[in-house]
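Hi W.,

Here's what went into the run:
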Amino acid sequence: MSLKKPISMTVNGVLVNAEIEPRRHLVDFLREDLHLKGPHLGCEQGACGACTVKVNGQIIRGCLFLAVQANGTVVETIEGLTKSGALADLQESFMRHNAMQCGFCSSGMLLAAAELIEKQPKASREEVREWISGNYCRCTGYHSIVNAIVDVLEARAKGQKIKPVVAHA
Amino acid sequence: MKAAAFDYIKPKALQDALSLLAEAGDDAQLIAGGQTLLATLNMRLSEPSVLIDITDLAELKGITLEGDHLRIGALVTHTEIEDSELIAKHAPLLKAAAPHIAHRAIRNLGTWGGSLAYGDPAAEWPACSLTLRATMIIQGPAGERRISADDFFIDLYTTSLEPDEILVATEIPLATSQEVFYFHELSRRHGDYAIAGLAALAQKQGDVLSQCAFTFFSVSSKPVMATKAQDLVNGQKLNEELIGKAVAAARAEIEALADITNSAEAKQHLIGVLLERGLKHMLASMR
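Here's what came out:
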């Protein structure tokens, strides 16, 4: 029953082959087997969103998706998306607004915010709050996070990008 | 917490999935989006010996327009429904309801069929399928059978699905040009389970509604229609007085059940609040 299954997936642009127990969920696989510590494991029941990663271009809860289900998919984490620059203006905006709170939710917040900007480029402040409610953890307020996302929405609507002060390697 | 150990199989064909399900019996659990199942596995509320992943089954995929109805495959995700132009045009109630389901990351994986088959009384899709008078298409060892949504939902997390059957798709009659609808749910935080919700639909001529369907969810052990309120409103000129009567009838006919944080009385009250808002909304949507 604990027979391991062979899996193969692309993680941050690199093909990964592994043998894993079917019960291993994707975040444990990413964190423990691939040592990608960006996606966090919070509630492990889909409530907090700290484990958010992208699978085949869409954000998902990494704790509610098995690594075997990810077989054959393209997985992206905060590490890969930081390197590619896909989140650069969001990350810069988060830094300018000090939109961290305790920081545990940050990687999930950034990935969720990126999909909001892609899907609802005209989102109102209320819609931003509604969208990121899936990443509320144990802090409160989230004002600076909302401000940071709204700034990026406004900049992009004008065809601008908030440029990072510090270039990413 | 971590899930207990289980095996995992991903059949390519519906017949293979049915055979695997028949062989494994009660120990097997189907998995589609897994957005409820994974949480229960992680909490060890369920410990199946094998998961049968049905996400490769072509028969269960896609939204298609077929004559006088829409066919929604069981594997269609909440996000696909939210973003579908076919849904927006032919089943606008579903488009309105989709954003209320959890959060985008969960809607990207969770499925229409999974929600129906799980039969959660607080879920949006069972209520919407009742309101839309949907037909469930089910495959089992003996072949295909069809059942109306009305007969499908039996009790708390209990549907008419047999352990060896798979829900394949749902057929929904197309929205007419006279159709008006209202969907709303009251919850403490967006994406949380509703304290009470309403999926309402009617045909409208002038200020008269007919063929009303008012389905309340998260108030009882399964989604329930307020048939007496519907009968009161059907074919009558809708005005403040009639709205008042319908609200009273709905509160009287539905026996609300308390949940962990909300009393039965609170839910009974909210049933009326939702119906009043819904009827006023549908009256105002008149063209």
